[in-house]
UniProtKB/TrEMBL annotation:
Transmembrane annotation, as ranges: 21-43, 58-75, 87-105, 117-137, 149-168, 174-196, 208-227, 239-257, 278-301, 313-330, 342-363, 375-397, 418-441, 461-480
Protein name as it appears in the record: MFS transporter
Topological type in the membrane: Multi-pass membrane protein
UniProt keywords, alphabetically: Antibiotic resistance, Cell membrane, Membrane, Transmembrane, Transmembrane helix, Transport
Entry-linked Pfam families: MFS_1
Domain Major facilitator superfamily (MFS) profile: 21-484
Length: 510
C-alpha cells in the first residue's frame, strides 16, 4: 500500500532552467566548502606575513566557524522570508566582498574581521542553496541526480580545498586563497540572477522570531567556541566548561521558546520528524569523524612523510574520487530503488572500515599499500551515505520551512566539524604526550620518538572516529525508517500536525 500527497498544480511543471540553476548552486556550494579547508594550508604563511601570534592563529579558523555555525538557523529563516534566490545572491556578493577584504588584509584584526564576515554571508547562502534544490527538483529520479552532485561537492569539496590551497600557497601567495573566491562568487551570483526561477508560493512571510534568533545564535556560538577552546586550553579549563554550560542553558531555553511562540525560527516539526532527526544526528557524527581525519592525514603526510602542500593535496584525490563515485554512481542510482537507510547505514559502515585500516598507520607506512585503499573506502562510503542524507533532510518539509530545514543540515555539518577537530585533536594530543613520556627512557633518537608519538596519537584518535562512524550507521538504520520514494513527484504538503514519523511524499508504507 502506498500513500501519495498530490502536488500543487502550479508546481507540476518543472522549471526548464533547473539543471542550469544546479550548476550555479553547485559552484556556490563548492566555494563555501573549499573555504573550510583552503585557508588551513595557507595559515602558516599568513601568520608570518601579518605577525599573528601563536595564541591568536586559531582565530583565523574559529572566527569563520563561529559566525557560520552561529548564524545558520537565522540565515535559513531569512531565506524563507526574503526568498531563496535573493538571499543566495546577497550571500554570494557579500562572501566575495569579505574574501576581497581578507586577501587585502594588512593586519591581524582585518584578517579576523574578514573571516567572521565570510562566515556570516556563508550562513546566508548555504541554506539558501540547499533549499533552492529542495523546491526546484520535485521528481524523484531528477532529485536523486541533483542531490548526488550536491552531495559529492559537499563531501569532497574540503579535500579539493587542500589541493587548491597547496597550489595557491606554494606557487602564488596565501592571499590568493581568499581572492580565488571572488570569481567563483561573481559567476555563481550572475548565473543565479539570470537563470534561477524560484517556485511561487514557497516563502514564509511570518514575523521573525527575535528571541529564537538571539538564543540559537548565542547557544551555537557558545557550543562551537567551547569545543574550539578545549582544543587549546583543555577540557577542564574554567572558560571551556562555562561555555558548555552556557550553551546547554541557551539551547534548552531556545527549544522551550520555539515550542511556545506562534512563528518559531525553527519549527520543532522540522527536527522532531523521525527521519530528518536521524539524518541530522547521523550526518553530524559522520562529519566529526571526517574533519578529524582531514587534520590528521594532512599532518601525517606533511610532517611525518615530508610531503609538500601540493603533494599533500593530491594525496587526497582518491578520497574525492570515491566520494564522487559513491554519491553520483551508487547513491543517485539506488536512491529511487532502495530505502534511504539501506544506503546511509552501509555507507557509514564502509567509511568506518576505511577508517579502521588507518588505525594501522606507522611512520614507514606505504601510501599505496594502506592509505590509498583506506581513502577509497572512506570516499565511497561517505559519498553513498551523504547523497540520500542531503535529499532526505529537506524532502517532504513544507515549502515555507525549506530554508530552515536546509540550515539544519549545514548546522549539523558545521557544529560536527568544530566538534570533530577539537575532540579528536585533544584525544590525539593526550595520547601523543602519554606515549612520549612512557617511551622517553628507551628512545634512540628524540626526533624519532617525536614522530612515533605523533603517529600513535593520530591512530588513537582514529579509533574513536571508527566508533563514531559505527554509531552514525546504527542511528541511520534505527531512526531513518522511510521507504524508497516512487518515481513520481516528491512535492508534498509537508508535515501535518501529529504526523511525526512519516515523510509526506509517496512512500511504501511499513
Amino acid at each position: 500500500m502506498s500513500k501519495t500527497v498530490q502536488a500543487p498544480a502550479q508546481d507540476l511543471a518543472p522549471d526548464p532552467s533547473r539543471w542550469k540553476a544546479l550548476a550555479f548552486i553547485a559552484l556556490a556550494q563548492l566555494m563555501v566548502v573549499l573555504d573550510a579547508t583552503i585557508v588551513n594550508i595557507a595559515l602558516p604563511s599568513a601568520q608570518t606575513d601579518l605577525g599573528i601570534s601563536d595564541g591568536n592563529k586559531q582565530w583565523v579558523i574559529t572566527a569563520y566557524a563561529l559566525a557560520f555555525g552561529g548564524l545558520l538557523l537565522f540565515g535559513g529563516r531569512i531565506a524563507d522570508l526574503w526568498g531563496r534566490k535573493r538571499t543566495f545572491v546577497v550571500g554570494l556578493l557579500g562572501f566575495a566582498a569579505a574574501s576581497a577584504l581578507g586577501g587585502a588584509a594588512t593586519g591581524e584584526a582585518m584578517l579576523l574581521g574578514s573571516r567572521a564576515l565570510q562566515g556570516a554571508f556563508g550562513a546566508l547562502l548555504a541554506p539558501a542553496a540547499l533549499s533552492l534544490l529542495a523546491v526546484m527538483f520535485t521528481d524523484a529520479k531528477e532529485r536523486a541526480k541533483a542531490f548526488g552532485i550536491y552531495g559529492a561537492i559537499a563531501g569532497g569539496g574540503g579535500a579539493v580545498g587542500l589541493i587548491l590551497g597547496g597550489f595557491l600557497t606554494e606557487y602564488l601567495n596565501w592571499r590568493w586563497t581568499f581572492f580565488v573566491n571572488i570569481p567563483f562568487a561573481i559567476v555563481a551570483a550572475a548565473g543565479a540572477y539570470f537563470v534561477i526561477r524560484e517556485p511561487s508560493g514557497t516563502r514564509n512571510r511570518s514575523p521573525l522570531d527575535v528571541p529564537g534568533v538571539v538564543l540559537s545564535t548565542l547557544g551555537l556560538v557558545a557550543l562551537v567556541y567551547g569545543f574550539t577552546r578545549a582544543e587549546s586550553a583543555g577540557w577542564s579549563d574554567t572558560l571551556t566548561v562555562s561555555m558548555f554550560v552556557a550553551s546547554a542553558v541557551l539551547l534548552i531555553a531556545f527549544v522551550a521558546t520555539e515550542a511556545k511562540v506562534k512563528h518559531p525560527l525553527l519549527p520543532l516539526r522540522v527536527v522532531t520528524n523521525r527521519n530528518r532527526g536521524g539524518v541530522y544526528l547521523s550526518l553530524g557524527l559522520a562529519i566529526i569523524a571526517m574533519f578529524g581525519l582531514f587534520l590528521f592525514l594532512t599532518y601525517y603526510l606533511q610532517v611525518v612523510k615530508g610531503y609538500s602542500p601540493v603533494k599533500t593535496g593530491f594525496a587526497f584525490l582518491p578520497m574525492i574520487a570515491g566520494m564522487i563515485t559513491g554519491s553520483t554512481q551508487i547513491g543517485a542510482r539506488l536512491m529511487t530503488r532502495v530505502a534511504p537507510r539501506l544506503l546511509m547505514g552501509p555507507g557509514f559502515l564502509t567509511a568506518g572500515v576505511g577508517m579502521l585500516i588507518l588505525t594501522q598507520l606507522q611512520i614507514d607506512t606505504s601510501y599505496a599499500g594502506l592509505i590509498l585503499p583506506a581513502q577509497i573506502l572512506l570516499g565511497l562510503g561517505m559519498g553513498t551515505a551523504f547523497m540520500p542524507a542531503m535529499s532526505l533532510a529537506t524532502i517532504g518539509v513544507e515549502p515555507r520551512d525549506a530554508g530552515v530545514a536546509s540550515a539544519m543540515v549545514n548546522t549539523s555539518q558545521q557544529v560536527g566539524g568544530a566538534i570533530g577537530t577539537a575532540l579528536l585533536n585533544t584525544i590525539a594530543a593526550s595520547a601523543t604526550t602519554a606515549y612520549a613520556t612512557s617511551h622517553a627512557a628507551g628512545a634512540k633518537s628524540l626526533e624519532l620518538l617525536k614522530l612515533q608519538a605523533m603517529v600513535h596519537g593520530f591512530t588513537s584518535a582514529i579509533w574513536w572516529a571508527v566508533g563514531i562512524l559505527v554509531v552514525a550507521s546504527a542511528i541511520a538504520f534505527t531512526l531513518v525508517n522511510t521507504g524508497r520514494p516512487d518515481t513520481g513527484s516528491l512535492t508534498g504538503s509537508g508535515d501535518a500536525e501529529g504526523v511525526e514519523d512519516e515523510i509526506r511524499v509517496p512512500v511504501v508504507a511499513h
